[in-house]
Each structure stands twice: as structure tokens, then as C-alpha cells.
Design a protein that fits this description.
Largest sheet: 10 strands, mixed
Structural class: alpha/beta
Helix content: 40-55%
CATH class of the largest domain: Alpha Beta
Number of domains: 2
CATH architecture of the largest domain: Alpha-Beta Complex
Radius of gyration: 19 Å
CATH superfamily of the largest domain: Spore Coat Polysaccharide Biosynthesis Protein SpsA, Chain A
Shape: globular
Order of helices and strands: EHEHEHEEHEEEEEEHHEHHH
Number of helices: 9
């Protein structure tokens, strides 16, 4: 077991978190790693903290003059990686020292597993809590996705490994060959998503193309969700817009006609609730409809590519 792990970290005004995040990566018991950091034009001291506290030989630092977003930022990094596995990591994550080793061991024992989620617990300010942040993504019939166990106190209720829909993008472990297999036009994450639901979309595509995702409770990390831990009102409006329109885009891209017909009432009812909420409570977020329709042609093109891949696999299995 000595496959290289490439760690992709994308920062944007991450001065509160980045030092602790990098320190936890460098403290891993698994040492065959490469670290690539991309900064999305931070206006705070993120870059200064990185350059002043760490040997530049330990990582590759890419400084952008514009904010590429989560998706394009990580796509840029992933295209540069040389490892057999890729850990996509938020700067507000702190890893337990055995996190990567546990994931590598599990991945090497299961050749069709392309995605693993560890057990993410909440870090609130400076406190490491036993509040669960994520034990993997779950997809509901209405096609809303959520992090299993979020907000619960960890008392061992998720201490068994099991199949999941996907992994939270804050600390998602991917097989590089899977990422290459499922990418569309050189995009692993969909660049048009910018941020939010990109991890669900990638997981859905991987599942369609025959890859498995599992949850591994022995791989523990801590997630400080920052403004997200307070309320939706603290979430920047442009991110709320991305979150809603991205859900619609991933349904267009990945949902089969038969599954849609089986779940149409659930999906449409949820959409009516979302639209009604935005209309009454957040009318400025209705911009999501404009952005959705602008991106709809690209989504249909991506759907055609996914279907072509699926058909090729079906023909190859005959």
C-alpha cells in the first residue's frame, strides 16, 4: 500500500482555517501525498499565512486573479494531480491523523469503489464536538440531497460501513481513474455549478456509470461550516441561487425518464415549495430560473454524453 494521494485544496478568504487544515494534512500517518492549493483571489491574509508558516517545497501553490469557484478551482487542481487517489478538501476541515491511511486501505480492497466518505464531525469555533456533520450523502425521492446524520450527537449510530449515494465535497475521497472515467469535456465537477450540489451531481454520475460509494466510520475529520452553522439568512444570496438552480441542472443531466415518472409528484411538489418560498421570502433568489434556463442547453448536451457512455457500457457487457 503506497499509492500516492493527491490533496486538492481550494481557498477563498480562508485565513481562519487554512493553517490548521494544512497542519492536519502534514500530520497524517500516510505520507505518500502531494498537496496542491489553489487560491481564488483571496482578499485577506490566506496567502501570507500559507507562505509564512509552511515550507514551499511541501506543496504547489496556484494563485488566481479571479474567483473560479469550487468546481473550476478543483477541476484545475485535479487535472494536475499525479496520485491514484484524490482527496478534495475544504480549508475548514481538520483531519484525524489516520484519516487518509484508513481511506487508502479501504479503497485498495474494493476495486469498484470510486468514492468514500469518512465520518465528518462538527468543529465549532475551537471546540471539536461529537455533533455529526456528515456520514455520506443521501438522495430522497424528491431529489433533494442531504448529509446523513447531520446535527445528531454521535453515539455510535453510524459506526458501521455501508453503501451511500455519495460523499460530501468538504472532504471527499475519489479514485482518480473513476474521475477520469466520468468526466465530461474535461470537467470532473460541472463548472457551471460554481459551488453547491457539485458533489451530489458527481456522485450521481458515478453511480450511473457503475461506480460504488461507501461510508467509512474509522476515517474521522472535523468540519467548521462557518456562516452555515447559524442560519440560511447568513448564506450569501448568490450561493442560494446556485444551490437551487444546480439541483434542477443535475436532475436534467442524470435522472432517467422512468425514475422521473415514478417520482414526478415528489419532485414537482418540492419544486413548487421552493418556488413559493423564494417568491414570498427571497424574491431576489428567483434569479435561479434565469440562470437555469441559460444553462439548460449545456445540461442537455451533458445528458447526451452520459447516455452515450451508458450505452457503450451496455453494449460492452453483452
Amino acid at each position: 500500500m503506497n499509492e500516492k494521494v493527491s490533496i486538492s485544496i481550494v481557498t477563498y478568504n480562508s485565513e481562519r482555517y487554512i493553517k490548521s487544515c494544512i497542519e492536519s494534512v502534514l500530520d497524517q500517518t500516510y505520507t505518500n501525498i502531494e498537496i496542491i492549493l489553489l487560491d481564488n483571489n483571496s482578499h485577506d491574509t490566506t496567502i501570507d499565512i500559507i507562505t509564512k508558516n509552511f515550507d514551499q517545497k511541501l506543496f504547489t501553490l496556484i494563485k488566481r486573479k479571479e474567483n473560479l469557484g469550487f468546481c473550476k478551482g478543483h477541476n484545475t487542481v485535479i487535472s494536475m494531480t499525479s496520485g491514484g487517489f484524490v482527496l478534495v478538501l475544504n480549508p475548514d476541515i481538520i483531519l484525524d491523523k489516520n484519516f487518509i491511511q484508513s481511506l487508502v486501505e479501504e479503497m485498495e480492497n474494493h476495486s469498484r469503489v470510486g468514492i468514500i466518505s469518512g465520518k465528518l464531525l462538527r468543529k465549532i469555533d475551537k471546540e471539536f464536538t461529537q455533533i455529526i456533520d456528515s456520514t455520506g450523502i443521501v438522495m430522497k425521492r424528491n431529489r433533494s440531497a442531504y448529509d446523513r446524520g447531520q446535527g445528531e450527537i454521535d453515539i455510535g449510530q453510524y459506526d458501521k460501513s455501508y453503501a451511500i449515494f455519495g460523499a460530501c465535497g468538504a472532504a471527499a475521497f475519489y479514485r482518480k481513474s473513476m474521475l477520469e472515467d466520468i468526466k465530461i469535456n474535461d470537467e470532473y465537477f460541472d463548472n457551471s455549478f460554481f459551488a453547491y450540489k457539485e458533489d451530489v451531481d458527481l456522485s450521481w454520475r458515478a453511480k450511473l456509470l457503475g461506480w460504488e460509494a461507501i461510508y467509512l466510520p474509522s476515517a474521522i475529520a472535523y468540519h467548521d461550516r462557518g456562516w452555515q452553522k447559524n442560519s440560511r439568512s447568513n448564506m450569501p444570496r448568490f450561493l442560494r441561487v446556485h444551490s437551487i438552480k444546480n439541483r434542477l441542472l443535475m436532475i436534467i443531466k442524470n435522472e432517467s425518464i422512468s425514475d422521473f415518472l415514478r417520482n414526478a409528484l415528489n419532485i414537482l411538489f418540492y419544486e413548487i415549495l421552493v418556488f413559493g418560498y423564494c417568491l414570498i421570502k427571497e424574491p431576489r433568489t428567483l434569479r435561479y430560473l434565469i440562470e437555469f434556463f441559460v444553462l439548460l442547453p449545456k445540461a442537455f448536451e451533458q445528458r447526451a454524453i452520459i447516455n452515450k457512455k451508458l450505452q457503450a457500457r451496455k453494449n460492452g457487457s453483452k
